[in-house]
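Two proteins were folded this term; both appear here.
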Amino acid sequence: MKALVHISFGLALILFAMISQAGSKVGYVQMKIIMQSQQSLDVGKKLMAEFKPRNAELEKFRKQIQDKEAALEKDSVNLSQRDLAAKRQEIEYLKIDFDRKKNRQHEDFQLRKQEELNNFQNNVNAAVTSLGQSEGYDLILYNTGGYIGAKVDVTDKVLKLIK
C-alpha cells in the first residue's frame, strides 16, 4: 500500500513537472491556512451559537440534579429508609436522563459540524474552481506537496472567493 502511495506521489510530481515545463499555469492552496481563516472560524462560531440554548438547557438540568442531591443529603436524616431510597432512585433516573440528553446533543453537534465542514469544503472547492477558470489555471493543488513556492501559492485569492 505504501509503495502504491509513493508511486502515485511520484507520478503526480512528474505530471506537475511536465505541466510546469509546458508553460501551464499552476497554483497551490494551503488548506491549513484556509482552515484557520476567519471564514472557517465563522463556521465554528455559527455552530456554537446554534447549540448555545441546548448547552444552557443541559447545564440547567445538571444544576437541578445537583440541587436535588444536596437537598437529599441535607434531609436524609429526617427521611425514612423507604423515602430515602425512592429519592435516590429518582436522582439516578434523572442522571440517566441527563446522560442520554448529553449524548444526544453530542451526536447532533457532531452531525451538524460535519455538515458545516462539508459545506465549507464545497465552498472552498467552488472558489478554487472559480479561480482556476477565471485566471486560466491549468492545475491547482491542495494538501499535496513537499515544497511550494510563493509564485504558485493562491491561498489568499481563494480566501477572498470563499463565501
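Next, the second protein.
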Amino acid sequence: MKNILSFIVFVLGLILITACTIDESGTTTEISSEQTSEITSEETTTTEPIISTYTNPVYEPILADPSIVRDDDGYFYAFGTQDYGQWGDFFGTAYTPILKSSNLVDWEYAGSAFTLQNRPIWGTPNAGLWAPDIVKIGETYNLYYSLSTWGDPNPGIGVATASHPLGPWTDHGKLLDSSSIGVNNSIDPAVFVGEDDKVYMIWGSFRGLYGVELTDDGLALKDGNQAINMKVHVAGLDTSTGWNGATYEGAYVINKDGYYYLFVSSGSCCNGHSSSYHVKVSRSTSPLGPYYDDQGKSMLDTNRGYTVMVGSGYFAGPGHNSIIQDDADNYWIVYHAYDLQEPAYFGNSPRRSLMIDKLIWNEDGWPSVRGKMPSNNEQDVPVIIDE
C-alpha cells in the first residue's frame, strides 16, 4: 500500500514540474515549471484596485461653501470660498480654489479661478471671494461669486465666464450689490435654469432670500435698473430686519419631479466646533416660489423647512451645500463641515472640510441624508461609469 501511495505522489510531482503545450504543427513540447511561471506572469495584467467605499471627509484641509459641476471630460469640479491658507493649506491663499475628481470621493487641488493679480476688486476694500456658484449655461460656464468682508455694509455678487471649469476665467464684474438691489447682505448666489429655459438667481444671507430673473446668458439682471422693484421675496424675513440665524443663507435649487427644491442653511456657519449650521429644504412648482416645507408652512418666516441634516458627535456645522447626480441618477449632497476629532482652532473660521453623502427621498418626496447626520463610517461610493 505504501508503495502505491509513493508511486502516486511521484506521478503528481512530475505533472506539477512539467507542463505541455502543442505548437501549430501539433508537436508536443515540454515546458519547465519555471517557463510556465514566466508565461503566466507575462499574460497576467495588473489593474488598479476598485474603490467601493469612502469615508468623510473626502477632501482636506479645506473647501468651504462648495459648488460642483461635471464637465464633458467626465471630471467633477468643486469650487469653494477663498482660502487664506492659515489652516495648513500648503497652496497658500487660493482665490476661489478648484478641486478635481473622477469619482466624487478622490479629490485633488486643481488651481484657483483667480489670482492675486486678476481677482475682482470692485467691492468693499479687502473684500474676499466667498460662496461661489458654478453653472453651465449653453456652452459657457458661469462662475458667480460673492465679494464681501465680515459685516460688509455693501457686499455684492459678480460673474465670470470660461469654456472649461479650469478656465481661464474672464471676469464680467458686478452683477448687483446690496445698495443697487435693495437687499442687505447680498451674498451667496444660487443660479439655475428653469423648466421654462429662463435663468434665475436666488441669493441673500440671514435676513431674507430674494430672487430675480437674469438675461438668457446669465450675465445681467433681466430687468436692469428696475430689478430692485421686480425682485421676489423667497424665504426668511424682510431684508429690513436685522441678522437672524433662524433665517437662511447658502441657497441651492434643483428641479425634480415637477418641483423646484430650495436647499438652505441655518444656524452659525463659522464658529468651529460650536457651529450650529444645518441644512433644510422646501419646494415649489415655480422657480421663485412661493416655497413651502413638508408641513405646508411658507418659508417666509424663521425656522422653516424639512430637515436634511444636522451636526453630530463627529461633525459640526454641516451645510452650504450643492447637489450633483451620479451615473445611476442618485442625488449626492456636497457640503462642508468641521471634523470634531481635530483640535479646535482659534479665529472665526476654522477649516471646513469637503463632505458628501447620498440623499434619500421619502415616500412624500422629501430628501435627507441617512440618519439626518453626516456619515462617519464607510459608505458605498457614487456610481460613476468610466467611458
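Residues 4 and 370 are 65 Å apart (CA to CA). The first helix runs from residue 2 to 17. These notes refer to the second protein only.
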